[in-house]
């Protein structure tokens, strides 16, 4: 998967290009937030609260604490990646082995996985998350763990479905016939092929993670103001919308939408990207 | 000389009641090719999976080089797999799409303690261009892919290769090249082959002996030439007469046996072909007919053979 | 009477690679043949030779990215290329019908067999109501489906592969077409069933004086069910003529190779054929396309070979076709 290949797919698939571009922009914002943001995200100007966009040093206005909305929105990208990447990693670390074993061996692992999924489906995720965070205590780390754990079974099911489809594939049968031990059939033959479809789902699950963490922050659980987290900022700004100070909530809201949309579009394009049949080789 | 593979009274039932294999017995000698022909539902592919123990039979015994492998665990079977190999029909699906041809050829050597450098020799042996070693399966043609599968199968000097429709999805001219390669390999190494196919002409070309399957039962077996020249069982006669030789000057001699193969669920107690057979007797439905000798090495499971009234009258040449 | 006349048909596909460069595959490169009433013409060739594409073009079913830069397809004297979909729909399923390879996916799983046959007639306004039902039942009888009255009420999933293929033939014939195009009509059927279906098809074509184009890779089907044959290679017809002529005196090296690749001939002659890959349709060489695989390629083959008449209506696109093989 070379860079030119990414470019090639981006050219052919505009949705992927837009999504990938959006994530790239957010990644740059997150990486260089200190350089790009004109003001520190939590520096308060007590005499300059709720200034509209374009007034003085506040490009996108200031919030109720007199903090710069623009700088805070940019720093929010750090929180978004801070939740998306580790939560995605947790999903992969737990979900892939679980899905692999459940799909290949079936049996009790499969049963347990399916029952957990049933429970998750029956229970509104947000209430479940709320309950767990309330029980384990607030804090960013807990939010990451909760979001990652909650989504792991779903990711495991994605992997499981891929494995089930591959289990009876001729090349898997041929691998057994060649004398591969079971672990090698799983790791060398099934995993690289199963991971393909699953990886394409990862950005979609990350988008969910960003959304759910913002939602948790919005209802006052998880990351707390004045930390520049988009959900927390929206919650803060929500009370001002009625009184006409719309910018406090709008800009973090737009950033959240753009990031989630970007991840979703990239996820759709990724299945194209990872398809070996389209990999440019040879001539 | 012990048979490389001996199948004894093999029965296989799939969950759901489909009886795919029904009391099948045969043996393959070293250096011999046994052709297994049959139409859909004849159980020929299931027999291939059972013979290589990719599937465990419901009943019966499978002996490989005299050793009973019927109930061996996957781990115990593994070292044996070096000498018991299989090539599947679909060359596009039989190779891991994310491994290069080079790695695919090295794998069997790696698994059984071979020298990885031999991968290049294998490629040369099956006349695969060395330039393909760095490529992925989707970049090769069907014929080249089948050569890769064959190279993998012969990597550890097997005693038996099960070939499940190895040329059925290939074009005619490509097919000939693969068959030629198989013949050469057998001549050089003395490997025995179980050649499973629905293609009568190909089976006749490559096989020393042939077994004809109908609904999971062997209805006739014999030397290839004898079986194709003077088929004894009415089903074998029907099958051969339905074949279309690729030559407009060979007249068709069609037996008008009607109907299609019944479903392999709830099979009758007697001869499975009796329902379609113009020569069926009441006794045919009583129980499974025993094998009757026809000629040296040739026998068929038909009651009519005892008094030689087993010949189907050909209908008029329809052409 | 000539029903279908394909003349110098070219079809190409334009696709974009990962590098965004436009690549053009020349899939058909000057295909010409005719099908007359009362004859069965076989179109043989290997994968990628363009057999099915030719059939689709003749049915007016080509869709972008396929396009026809050049050529003519006349059906009953009328040019098909350039006709609107509405006009084509009046011809397809009415005057010209197609039988495809996978019968079970070609039938509507939610409609009874009889209803599908009736609908076929209603769509083309050939018969309605009781008349259409009577005709439908008669068609099922004509394709030798036992107990047609009962089969009218059958669902597609209740049919075996051979029965489904017969129903499909009945569907194709129900509006009394003049031409039938059958694309691998028996591939995937068992040997014994294949023979029954082909017998049925041949008898109906003869009894109704239809024209039929049978696309197949099976030389046995050609040998016993076709009167004339056209052999395709890399989007060209390399040899055509009466079946017995072509088989007894194959005049293009590719035809000879095909015939010599059959197991029966291998048993007689030994391994004479070395298969090869067909030319890259994205980068076709000049001259004879079979040159790279041909045992008797010569400098003359750098120029495209014309069709040379061997005898009567038998001809081959080879510079050496006139010589005795």
UniProtKB/TrEMBL annotation, chain A:
CDD domains: TM_PBP2. PROSITE patterns: ABC_TM1. It holds the Pfam family BPD_transp_1. It comes from the Bacteria. Residues 77-267 form the ABC transmembrane type-1 domain. It is found in: Cell membrane. Keywords: Cell membrane, Membrane, Peptide transport, Protein transport, Transmembrane, Transmembrane helix, Transport. The chain crosses the membrane at residues 16-37, 79-102, 122-150, 208-226, 246-267. InterPro entries: BP-dependent_transpt_permease (IPR050366), MetI-like (IPR000515), MetI-like_sf (IPR035906). Belongs to the binding-protein-dependent transport system permease family. This is ABC transporter permease. It comes from Falsiroseomonas selenitidurans.
Automatic annotation (TrEMBL), chain B:
SUPFAM superfamilies: P-loop containing nucleoside triphosphate hydrolases. It comes from the Bacteria. Transmembrane segments: none annotated. It is found in: Cell inner membrane. One of its GO terms (molecular function) is ATP binding. Keywords: ATP-binding, Nucleotide-binding, Transport. It is a peripheral membrane protein. Residues 5-240 form the ABC transporter domain. Its main location: membrane. InterPro entries: AAA+_ATPase (IPR003593), ABC_transp_ATP-bind (IPR050319), ABC_transporter-like_ATP-bd (IPR003439), ABC_transporter-like_CS (IPR017871), Oligopep_ABC_C (IPR013563), P-loop_NTPase (IPR027417). Gene3D superfamilies: P-loop containing nucleotide triphosphate hydrolases. Belongs to the ABC transporter superfamily. This is ABC transporter ATP-binding protein. The lineage of its organism: Bacteria, Pseudomonadati, Pseudomonadota, Alphaproteobacteria, Acetobacterales.
UniProtKB/TrEMBL annotation, chain C:
InterPro entries: AAA+_ATPase, ABC_Ni/Peptide_Import, ABC_transporter-like_ATP-bd, ABC_transporter-like_CS, Oligopep_ABC_C, P-loop_NTPase. It is found in: Cell inner membrane. Belongs to the ABC transporter superfamily. Pfam families: ABC_tran, oligo_HPY. It comes from Falsiroseomonas selenitidurans. It is a peripheral membrane protein. This is ABC transporter ATP-binding protein. Keywords: ATP-binding, Cell membrane, Membrane, Nucleotide-binding, Transport. The lineage of its organism: Bacteria, Pseudomonadati, Pseudomonadota, Alphaproteobacteria, Acetobacterales. Its main location: membrane. Residues 6-259 form the ABC transporter domain.
